[in-house]
Amino acid sequence: MVPDTAAEAPLAVRGRIYHNRPLFTNHQSREIMRKYGGGGAETRGALGLMSGTSLDGIDAALIRSDGRGRVEAGARLSRAYDAAFRGRLRALLGETGPVDEVERELTLKHAAAVRDLLAEADMAAGDVQVVGFHGHTIWHHPEAGRTRQIGDGALLAAETGIDVVCDFRGRDMAEGGQGAPLAPLYHAALAAALPKPLAVLNLGGVGNLTWIGPGADDILAFDTGPGNALIDDWAARHTGQPVDLGGALARAGRVAESALAALLDNPFFALPPPKSLDREDFDPAPVAALSAADGAATLTAFTAAAVARAGDHLPAPPGRWLVTGGGRHNPALMAALAVRLTAPVAAVEAVGWDGDALEAQAFAYLALRALDGLPLSLPGTTGVARPATGGVLHRA
Questions:
Q1: b/e per residue, 190-208, with b = 16+ CB within 10 A?
Q2: Distance CA 360, CA 369 (A)
């Protein structure tokens, strides 16, 4: 299910390496999707870094993998952003504010996370072949063919002494894709032995899902709508806390059905997948007049209802929903999903995955694939015209 045929050789430009798109015919694309497994490649150490749309901090994770079907999870850590930096980062959303200053600060925080994780794992920089550095998305508008993730790959390579792959989304968008989501191939690798059809739902600031079917080339992925972003922003405004802790605020309120209907009256939900969106694409104005508790309850219901709407686009109903990302820590949100979805809902820990590390692990995995010129996205995951590799390599 994970393509393991390399694309063309990478192209070096001004000290960076840009991987060309793979030149697969439709028939070849179907054939490589049937090649699941190691393919003879050796496993290598990689470290992934993720700063998600929830603005909460950095997740860092180590894996050993061949970038194909063999994955072994290693140590991981999370480093929360302090309130002042979170405010500076939030001010950049939409590409406003002092981008260069915050980008450098963000990169140095990631470098510190790399050093801390290696120290905790009793490993040296030489034990890791590559760092997959997502950076932080401050602008994502696929309809305009634009996305921007801040983060200085060259600086991170210099600070850590490890080669860095970054800019995972640019090549996909240049080839007509949405540039997101990018974790589906990692989900497919992890889920190889699980019953299908299966849905993996990531609830970060934005929600996205990976549907994995029983066939060799059955994979579909897209953004579902809001994840935690609207809930978190509401909680911060009304409680001073960055999240709705334990879903307590939502559980104390009632869903305002008229406000929920207004939130769901958005053309995004009717668009066929693949599709993606920006953290700022949904306006919470319909809940503005509600109490703190009712607003939280309604926004929580909105995220769950958006996921249920996404289910209408799937080729077949999943037999199970596995939830990763920060949203799985919110009991009110998990309960709302259980009510609205027609199959069992569980956190990914139910199958032995680590939901706090999964996205960081995914970018470690994608970095290894980028080094080998393998696809990072497929027509069914981003809408790209053909399987596309990508990434920019910065040598340490």
A1: bbeeeebbbbbbbbbbbbb
A2: 14
How much is the pTM?
0.90
Which of 13 and 135 is assigned the larger pLDDT?
A: 135
CATH superfamily of the domain spanning 11-175+385-394 = ATPase, nucleotide binding domain (3.30.420.40)
How does residue 54 score in pLDDT terms, banded at 50, 70 and 90?
confident
Q: Which CATH number fits domain 184-351: 3.30.420.40, 3.90.550.10, 1.20.120.430, 3.40.50.300?
A: 3.30.420.40
Q: Is the pLDDT of residue 40 over 90?
A: no
Could you give the CA distance from residue 293 to residue 291 in angstroms, rounded to a whole number? 5
Tell me the HSE value of 8 on the side-chain side, using a 13 A CA sphere.
11
Cα(145)–Cα(183) distance, integer angstroms: 20
Whether pLDDT at 41 is above 90: no
pLDDT reading at 268 higher than 90: yes
| Token output for 164 | 């860095």
- Position 134, amino acid: H
d(CA 322, CA 210): 10
Distance CA 76, CA 54 (A): 19
Q: What is the pLDDT averaged over residues 101-123?
A: 98
Structure tokens at 157: 């390579």
For the stretch 116-120, contacts whose Cβ atoms lie closer than 8 Å and that sit 24 or more positions apart, written own/partner, are 116/60, 116/77, 116/79, 117/47, 117/60, 117/61, 117/62, 117/75, 117/76, 117/77, 118/47, 120/75, 120/77
